Amino acid sequence: MAALQSHSLLSSSFRPSQLPLCRGKWRTGAALRLPLSSKSKPPSLPMLSHSPITMEGLARTEQTMKTNKLGHKEEQDNSSFVIPKLLAVAEAAADRAEMHAIIGEQRNNWNHLFLHSINSITLTASLMAGFSANAEDSLPLGLCSTVLFASAAGLMLLVNKIQPSQLAEEQRNAARLFKQLERSIRTTSVGLGGGAANEYDVEEAMEMVLALQKAYPLPLLPGMLEKFPKSVEPAKWWPKLQQRRRKGAGRNGWSREMEEEMRGVARVLKVKDEEQYVRLSKLVRDINKFLASAGPMLAGLAAAGAAASSLGVGHGSLPAAVGGALAAVVNTMEHGGQVGMVFELFRNCAGFYRRLEEEIEFNLGEEEKMREQGEVFEVKMALQLGRSLSELKELASYASPVSCEDDEINDFAGKLF
After folding, report:
1. Quick check: helix, strand or coil at residue 53?
2. Cβ–Cβ < 8 Å for 248, 373
3. Which end of the chain has less Cβ packing within 10 Å, N or C?
4. What's the pTM?
């Protein structure tokens, strides 16, 4: 009975009007109905324009996607082999450097052995020719001295043809350049050269190796460089400079002042440094040619005098002794003084300055964004010329022929040697 009374009390006390109003202001069910009028239309979807898709089009699209995917994969595979290729070229350059160093040492030994052997033969023959003048039987001594003088003359002709001292200098320079190339390639392979390595770096490295191999050949015959060239040109051991595949930003570190400075450096290199070493090379070549001709000629005259003395014709012992002594002196001046080595040294110096000149002109001829970074290039040039940056800037006054004539340039660009 009590439960029924409580239920009636709760039902009588509950009124909808007593509920709290919601902020959303809920309406009655009639208000929630959407009125539909005769003018209202159902919503319509936009019409999508489409073209008919055929099986051929699907096949063509799929083939294009496969081709692009294969091309991208092949490009990734090629780029993954760049570093091993560069390291292989670096190993080849290191091997070439070792070969040139070994052969250079061998040819330097040739120079000393031939020098002392020829001098010993010549002086011995001269002593025999001198003794034969007072000997009762001069025939044996005269024949021996004749044979020795003829042998010395033949050896002189051979040695003067190959110039062992010049050969040794060629191999020493080649070994140094191959070691320098090896270090440059390894620097590029580890990414310290200003960007990631690519196939162009591999091609450039191989061209440098082949150019060095052609400039300084290992075999004597055939391929030996001419020792007495008619026209003296600076040594060239680098391939033709080509446009580098690099992109810079802005002026790439270059300015108008730096361009004028580099033009001045290139002009001084051409007018003074390169010209000086070419002129010295010609002078040394002429001296070497004279000595190479005088030595065998004197030894041959001594052989003729010794033969005449042994046969009792005239007094040939004295001319034989004097001629042999002079032949030994000439041979010592030529090969002991290593005149051929000096000629090759001057020719290489002229080539060194020619290379710097070409590198400057090549960079100035390129677009600014394709040039080598200006500040790095300036530091490299200053160090290779043995100058400081402030001393290098002083050469900017020679940039234009209007500022001064070629004869008025008194300064040299290089201070290293």
Report:
1. coil
2. yes
3. N
4. 0.76
